[in-house]
Every structure is written in C-alpha cells, then in structure tokens.
From TrEMBL:
Keywords: ATP-binding, Kinase, Nucleotide-binding, Phosphoprotein, Transferase. Its EC number is 2.7.1.25. Residues 402-488 are annotated as: Disordered. ATP binds at residues 230-237. Belongs to the APS kinase family. This is Adenylyl-sulfate kinase. Residues 495-662 form the Phosphotyrosine protein phosphatase I domain.
Length: 673
C-alpha cells in the first residue's frame, strides 16, 4: 500500500509563487527549487519526511482546499485547482487570459497608490492595463487596498483596466526585480510595458486618499498587540495587568486580555507543557491577537514565549493583519525569578521533576527586537510600568501620559484600592479595573470582559462617550443607567440614544449635535455617537460641520470621534444608524441588540405611525421592528462637496426632529411620572 501523501499549507509568499508557476507567469520556470531560483518551497521536517516517502506533497490553501501536488524531491507541480475566493478574485487572470482579453494595451506595473501627477502622466498614454502587484511583501498598501486604489485610478483614466498579479518578494532586491521584469513581459507579450516615473509627489485624488487613510491609519489608531515575554516570575503578567488598568483608566481603547492561564482553559485546552504544545499555544494566542488587531482592537498577551522563531511568527501574523506588534521583554534575571518563586516550580525543575522548564532545562532566547526592555528587580510596579508607558509614547502607538482626573472608585462599604509597592509574581495591584474570567462578572463598570464573560450589572456610559457629554447641570457629568430597584419602581433615568455612521465624523456627529439642540436640555434624553469603523479623537468633517451654524446648532468644537464598542451598545436604549449597512454590521457583530437598532429614517417613519412616546414607543417598536427601507438611508456625504453635505444635513435635521419629539417624555421605571 502506497504511503499517504501529506498535506501542507505554505506561507503566503509560497502560495503566491505557486499561483504564478501554475498560471505560466514565471515561464520558463515551471517548478519550485530550480537551481539559482528564489522560487523555493520549504517544508517542515515531519512533512518533508512523509513527502519523500510518498514522493509528493499536496499543497492546500488556508481553508484546506487542495491547490497542487508537488513532487518531492524535484519540485515539479501538478495543478489541481486555482484559488477560487478572495476580494477582487475576478481581476486575477492568467497571462494567456490577459493577452486574449486586453490586446494592444500598454502594461503599467503598480506597486503603490497612483498619485495625481502620475495620473496626469498616464492620461496621454492611450489604452492601459494597470498591473497591480499584490503578492506578499510587494505593495506599499495591503493587497486589497492596492486593488481598490488602482481601480479608482483606472476610473479616472480615459481607457484603463486592472489586472491583479500576486508577485511576491523573496528578500533579494536584484532577483525580485528580475522576476518582476520577467512576469510583466509574460503578461504583456508583444505589447509595451511602461514604468511610472518615480515621484516625491504625495498628492492623491480624494477617493484614493480615503483608501490610503483607511488602510494605513496613524500609529495611534492602528490595532495593537502588546506582547510581554520573560521568564516565569519575571513580573510580565503583573506589568501587563497594570498596563491594562492604565489604559482603561484613560478610557480611549478597549482591551482583550489573552492571559496564559485564561487562554489555556479556553483556547488551548488539552495541550500539554511539552515544547511543541507550548509553541502551539503561543501561535494560537498570536492568531487571536492578530485578528483583534485587524479590527482595530488592542490585545495584551503575557506568555513566556521563550523562542525567537515563535515570537517572529506572531509578529508576522499581526503584520499581515495590518496591526502593530509591540514586544515588551521583561528581563528580570533568573536568580531574582527563582527568589520570587512562591510555587516552588524552579526548585522542582532543578530536581528534574518538571522537564523542559524555561531557564533551567529549556533555553530562553533573549529578544533582539523588543520595543522596550524592563528589569523589575527591586522596583515598584509604577516605576517599571513607566518604562513601558514611555516606550509606547515614543513609538507613537499609545500615549498614556494624560489621564483624565477621576475620583477613586469606592465599592459600597469599601475604600479605594492601593497599589502594591514591589513587583512580585501574582502581586498585581488591586484596582477598580479587573480581568473577568469566562462566565464571571466584573466588579466595576470598567472591567475587561474575556470571551464568555458578562458585563457588570451597572451599565455606565463608556468612558470614551464622556468626551462628548450631553449638557447636564454639572458640566462633564455622564448620564448613568442604573438597574431598577427590587420592586422595579421609582428609579429615574434618561433614554440613551446612540447615533452611528461609518467614521463618526460626518453623519452621526450631526445627528448627535442636532438632537442635543432640538432636545433643548430635556433631562429625559441623553445622546452620543460612534462609528462602525470610527476614527479615534478626530474632529468633525469641516464641510459637514459648516452646515451646523446656519441651523443654530453648536457644540462642534468639543466633538471628538470614536469607534463603536460593546460598551456603547450596552449604554444605549436605542441605536439609530445612518444606513441599513450599519445596522447589518452591528447585528452581525452584536446580535443580542437586535431589538434596539434601527436606521434613523426607519425609526422616524415608524414613530410617526404610533401614538406612544418615550420608553413605551421603544418597547413597542422593539417588538415589531420590521425591515429597513434603503430609500430611507442617509447617504454618505464625505468628500462629495457642499451640495451633498447640505442634502444630508437637511435630511438628518428633519428626521432628528421627529425622533426627539417621539422620544421626549419624562418617565420612571415601572410607572409614569
């Protein structure tokens, strides 16, 4: 019986190379591992041994779809199928398909967004094929962003089409240049290839600039993975917890804690403490952290992570996801870690009772690429933490130097917690911000909630919502939603209305400020806004803001944008969005809030058909809901000129007046006022 052919999912670079090899784009190259060629396939030792025995390895994509069978040894390729999914897949054509579909065009390689001056340069070149080089490591934007930007550029040219070619880099500039010339010549055939002139011009058309801004946000708006590494007992978990508390106190970012023990119980259950399983555990942590960063979140991890290769793999995952990776090496010496060892683990390891124990019987590879190195020996938590805080500020990723002054949180019958004086393992300071284990509930409204955890019973307005407070008798005080008392009567609260658009710089801030204007200080209503892909602390768009003054609406100077979080949705009694797409986005991420999310137009139209007002109206509409009519959406006016902004402002102002009128009502839980 023939040995089974092993399967292997290679690196993104190798997958790109495979696609070019099977499409004929690298002709005369047709296989991996040709002498002198940078097109190689690296197999893990166990896969290589099995492949040599079977004579081949089956290459699969990340979803497990078999793409090709590669001879081992030899590198010859038998194509099984081509990748069938992915953004703009219809632009990925073989050289033969391109030559047949687009003859007589000038082929222009594109590895970055096309500037305004380059567009002018191309406008006189006739029929063009813009070849977006989207392979791993090649484009200056993400592959999807480069294709979006190139499609927008093509739309501005007299006659241009876009072709996607996954030409990857291989760490050798000369070899990569030669490959690029070879691939472009194969695609163009007899047609000319035109290289864009190098330019220092960084001016882009507005629509292309928007793609760049979304793909490459400022450092402090990117998703971030804070990765603490160090020996057991070094103080890395203590520092990580203290840093999370500091971030929560500032109130500008949400956090996911990927603590080692929590992860082992939930993400990596069943793994042992063998070297292989420990590395698998770290890679799983890294994958989850990278996905969090992909969506603009902040993940904090504190595994031992002793091996440089695994740390590099996590960094690569985060980079591929578009996030930022910040490595904190807690370099407390082994002797100090042993001194602190309360569980006796080091002593057991020295007696041989614990095999492969890092620092004793298994090595710790000291990082050479840490963003900051901290030795906690003899230092207070705050002192050691300051090293991390300063390094994060210098990096541009996170500035924790300014924290809004807040009174200490005091639990009933208790006193404010005081920090521990010296960093010890397990000795993290008790603070009002705590990590909630799965199934648990935080002690305070500012707790971090792990997957499966529950938010605190008391739902306060999220800290970042207080950046745009609804006017209250005491300036800056945030409305608080308290739970009903035991009898369900007598506890007053405002109705909390959250407006949502995409970036929280155009439509939703107009909704919020207009609502505050029309509510005229009504204490039964509180308003705020956020964006499904909201910028952090940006001012309102100037063109849209200019439509407020003629309407007598103020408050734009104090406005700062923010991204939508679960805390915002928990605070809100009703969520009013600009478009049905925003509603779909929210419900896909937070399906539990389906009874209180409406488009602004949908809610205004539905409320006009009811005699009910205030909380009774919300309850009734939450039961019936209905389908949002796209005709009632408020179109995005961003970067579409004064006319589009005025049209959106007029529509929003009319709808908001209807909404405020429908919701304004003094009320109590359990009975009418």
């Amino acid at each position: 019986m023939s040995p089974a052919v092993p399967q292997h999912c290679p690196s993104p670079r190798e997958l790109d190379d495979l696609e070019l090899l099977t499409s004929g784009a690298l002709a005369p190259l047709t296989r991996f591992d040709e002498p002198g060629s940078p097109i190689t396939l690296t197999l893990p030792d166990d896969v290589r041994l099995a492949a040599v025995e079977a004579g081949a390895v089956e290459i699969v994509d990340p979803e497990g779809l078999p793409l090709a069978r590669v001879a081992v040894p030899g590198g010859g390729i038998e194509a099984l199928t081509h990748a069938q999914y992915g953004p703009f897949r219809d632009h990925y054509l073989t050289p033969a398909q391109v030559r047949e579909a687009y003859p007589g065009r000038t082929f222009v390689p594109v590895a970055g967004p096309i500037t305004s001056s380059q567009l002018e340069e191309l406008s006189s070149r006739g029929s063009l094929a813009l070849v977006a080089l989207v392979g791993a490591g090649t484009p200056s934007l993400s592959p999807v962003a480069l294709l979006r930007a190139t499609r927008l550029a093509a739309a501005r040219l007299p006659d241009a089409v876009v072709v996607a070619v996954p030409l990857a880099t291989h760490g050798d500039a000369d070899a990569d240049h030669a490959l690029g010339v070879q691939v472009l010549a194969t695609y163009a055939g007899a047609d000319p290839v035109y290289a864009l002139a190098e330019t220092e011009d960084d001016e882009f058309p507005d629509d292309i600039a928007a793609v760049i801004d979304f793909d490459q946000p400022p450092a402090d708006e990117r998703g971030l993975v804070l990765f603490f590494t160090g020996l057991s007992g070094s103080g890395k978990s203590t520092l990580a917890r203290a840093l999370m508390d500091r971030i929560l106190e500032q109130g500008t970012r949400t956090i996911t804690s990927l603590d080692g023990d929590v992860v082992r119980r939930n993400l990596s259950a069943g793994l042992t403490f063998s070297k292989e399983d420990r590395e698998t555990n770290i890679r799983r942590i890294g994958w989850v952290a990278a996905e969090i960063s992909r969506h603009g979140g902040l993940a904090v991890c504190s595994p031992i992570a002793p091996f440089a290769e695994t740390r590099d793999q996590v960094r690569a995952m985060v980079d591929e996801a578009g996030g930022a990776f910040f490595l904190v090496h807690v370099a407390t010496p082994l002797e100090e870690c042993e001194r602190r060892d309360r569980k006796g683990l080091y002593a057991k390891a020295r007696r041989g009772e614990i095999p492969e124990f890092t620092g004793i019987s298994s090595p710790y590879e000291i990082p050479t690429d840490a963003g900051v190195v901290v030795d906690t020996t003899g230092r207070t938590i705050d002192d050691a933490l300051d090293d991390v805080v300063q390094a994060l500020k210098t990096s541009g990723y996170l500035d924790l130097s300014v924290v809004e002054p807040n009174p200490p949180v005091v639990e009933p019958g208790g006193a404010p917690a005081t920090p521990s004086s010296v960093v010890e393992p397990g000795g993290a300071p008790a603070t009002p911000s705590s990590v909630v284990e799965p199934g648990g509930a935080p002690a305070t409204p500012s707790s971090v909630v792990e997957p499966g955890g529950a938010p605190a019973t008391t739902v306060s307005k999220p800290a970042d919502l207080t950046a745009n407070p609804t006017p209250e008798p005491t300036q800056g005080a945030a409305p608080v939603v308290e739970p009903p008392d035991a009898e369900g009567e007598g506890v007053s609260k405002p109705l909390n209305v959250l407006f949502v658009c995409t970036a929280n710089i155009c439509r939703s801030p107009f909704m919020q400020l207009a609502a505050e204007h029309h509510a005229a200080g009504d204490p039964t209503l509180a308003f705020d806004s956020a964006g499904t892909h909201g910028f952090r602390a940006h001012e309102m768009d100037g063109v849209m803001a200019a439509t407020l003054t003629p309407r007598g609406i103020s408050g734009v100077e104090a406005f700062k944008s923010k991204p939508l979080t679960r805390d915002h949705l928990a605070w809100a009694d009703v969520v009013l969005v600009a478009e049905n797409d925003h509603r779909s986005f929210i419900l896909s991420e937070y399906p539990e809030v389906f009874r209180k999310v409406f488009t602004l137009g949908q809610f205004a139209a539905a409320s006009a058909e009811h005699d009910l007002r205030g909380a009774d109206l919300l309850h009734d509409l939450g039961q019936t809901r209905g389908v949002a009519d796209p005709a009632l959406d408020v179109a995005d006016p961003y970067r579409r000129g004064d006319e589009a902004a005025e049209a959106a402002a007029t529509q929003i102002d009319t709808l908001v007046q209807q909404v405020v009128s429908a919701l304004s009502s003094h009320h109590l839980f359990g009975k009418e006022a």
